[in-house]
Amino acid sequence: MTLTIPISVLAIAAWLILLNLCSYVVMTSDKRKAKRNKRRVPERTLFIWAAVGGALGIWIAMRAKRHKTQHNSFKFGIPALFLLNIVIYGTLLYFASSYFYI
What we know:
Layout: H1 7-35, H2 43-65, H3 72-96
């Protein structure tokens, strides 16, 4: 018995991994800039990264770097966007798994 994974599922998984890695890097960059008193990444940009699927990367960076953890908009907004990401991408993966087999 061989396991066949639809190419659409692989593409979505690769997209999410890349997106969350980039989100983590952007959040880490903002923390570094904050320490050096340099121009920061706008909060709106961080929320956009989270909304399109990078909420897990932002959330992990928040915890690992102790950055933006006291802001209520981040403390509650990022986990909420993460749950929304799960619903949206979970639904997308569910329907994508029926099509485009390798």
